[in-house]
Design a protein that fits this description.
four-stranded mixed β-sheet; 6 helices; elongated; about 400 residues; alpha+beta
Length: about 400
């Protein structure tokens, strides 16, 4: 009975191991196709070692394995069971690291920077004048260098300065401009600065006047104009002088006849070229001695001017003739405006120049009373005391007196 139980247990164990031998176990390995984030099963077969067969003790001929004394089943020589070895799994090979061509990665490989191997300039030397400039261009090699920045430096900023490649010439001398890459590759350009050339001014070669001779009466004027050649002369100014200022004076080309005689007016350039004009001044025409009232008015007016610090006026026969004609016209053709003639002309038009004019009565019986009356009238007084007058003419007819004043006689 005991032997049967042992055989039954052995059969059950054998069947269990046979069933295990047909059972697959799964092992998960990472799937590299999806970045290593999932696993796929891999079938591995479990190896089974068959246990050794049970052996029976030798048969003594005493029946069913009884003892040596014929005591049946209960003998001490029972069958021996050997336990099968423990099942072991085959050794596992470590999974290789996942391959990731083109997949996402947290630490991509780093590229090494490409360093400059050299730098060149578009000019190795330049000559400039003070105040000039030149632009230098730096080319870094290779063209795909990671950092192509450069720095600029001048070894003599008193001669030339540089900012971002623009060189400015400051003073006479030589300077070296250096461009450097970040890894100390350099190139240089020599800058020579010279003084600008001295510009030679164009000098006058001559001067001419619009008049070479003029004849004037005392108090008369003439305008001389100097023309310096060539027209592009750097300095075209002239200096005016008179050889006899008692005869004629000159200021900026305007000649004034002072007294009878002859004077030479000279215009001179700064480098000595001259032009001259001869000025002849006629002696003033004396007032008519037979017109005593006119002479009396003439003298009375000059007395007032001298008393007020002004120069006495010179007799002008032309103005005397015009004054006499107007006095005569006033007697025969009186007009509402005493300064307008019967022909409609005013005092300037009759004299042919700008003049001052006073008209009064009391002529010829009391001519000096007329002057006194004018000095008490603001308008007449201002006419007599005008500083710009140099000549005067007096003409009277009947009881009308006319006096004309001017800066020039002719």
């Amino acid at each position: 009975m005991k032997k049967l139980l042992i055989l039954t247990i052995a059969a059950v164990i054998l069947l269990a191991f046979v069933g295990c031998a047909n059972t697959n176990t799964s092992e998960y390995i990472p799937d590299s196709s999806n970045g290593g984030n999932s696993e796929v099963p891999r079938n591995t077969e479990t190896r089974y070692t068959e246990p050794p067969r049970e052996t029976e003790p030798p048969n003594n001929g005493n029946g069913d394995n009884g003892d040596s004394n014929g005591n049946g089943e209960g003998g001490s020589d029972e069958p021996v069971y050997t336990e099968p070895p423990i099942e072991t799994a085959p050794p596992q090979t470590p999974n290789p690291p996942p391959q990731n061509p083109g997949g996402n990665t947290n630490n991509p490989p780093q590229n090494n920077p490409i360093l400059p191997t050299g730098v060149t300039l578009n000019h190795s030397s330049r000559s400039l004048e003070v105040g000039g400039h030149v632009n230098l261009t730096a080319t870094v090699a290779p063209s795909n260098a990671t950092n192509r920045n450069v720095t600029w430096e001048s070894n003599n900023t008193a001669v030339a300065t540089v900012v971002n490649g623009r060189v400015n010439a400051i003073g006479v001398g030589t300077a070296t401009i250096t461009v450097s890459t970040h890894n100390n590759r350099t190139a240089t350009a020599t800058i020579t600065v010279t003084a600008p050339p001295v510009q030679t001014p164009v000098l006058p070669t001559g001067v001419t006047l619009n008049h070479t001779t003029r004849t004037l009466n005392v108090g008369g004027n003439a305008d001389l104009v100097a023309t310096v050649a060539p027209s592009n002369a750097a300095d075209r100014s002239v200096t005016w002088t008179s050889s006899n200022t008692n005869v004629a004076s000159v200021v900026n080309g305007r000649v004034t006849a002072v007294g009878a005689g002859t004077a030479t007016i000279t215009a001179e350039t700064h480098n000595g070229h001259r032009a001259t004009a001869t000025i002849t001044v006629n002696a003033p025409t004396p007032p008519p001695q037979n017109v005593t009232p006119a002479r009396a008015v003439f003298n009375a007016i000059n007395d007032e001017r001298i008393a007020h610090g002004l120069n006495p006026l010179v007799w002008c026969q032309h103005l005397a003739d015009v004054s006499l004609a107007h006095s005569t016209d006033r007697v025969h053709n009186p007009q509402s405006n005493p300064h307008i003639g019967s022909d409609g002309r005013d005092w300037n038009e009759r004299a042919g120049r700008h003049v001052g004019e006073n008209i009064g009565g009391f002529f010829p019986n009391n001519p000096t009373r007329a002057v006194n009356t004018w000095m008490n009238s603001t308008a007449h007084r201002n006419t007599i005391l005008t500083s710009g007058w140099t000549v005067m003419g007096v003409g009277g007819y009947g009881t009308t007196l006319t006096v004309k004043f001017s800066a020039t006689c002719c």
